[in-house]
Amino acid sequence: MMIAMTAHGPWEQGDPPAFWPVFPITFGLLWLAVLAAAGYLLWRRASARPAARAQDPLAGARTILAERFARGEIDEDEYHVRMSALRTEP
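Given the sequence above, the corresponding structure tokens read:
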């Protein structure tokens, strides 16, 4: 006696659920978000480099000197002496 099998596995026992397209769409959107975030970070890093190169190297020293004067670490005479030293070209 031969038994005819109509189902070849658990995947052929009916229609797939109606929400099955949600998983591949969500997975695709996840990868798009990862790629977009990576692209944004690379763009931001590349666009920040020219601005850093163009900045005056003495501007940072002047800022630090002004902050030290404001905190009272140096007096007015020392501030003016050091600021004039920063203004003179070597």
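The radius of gyration is 34 Å. Try to locate this feature in the token string yourself.
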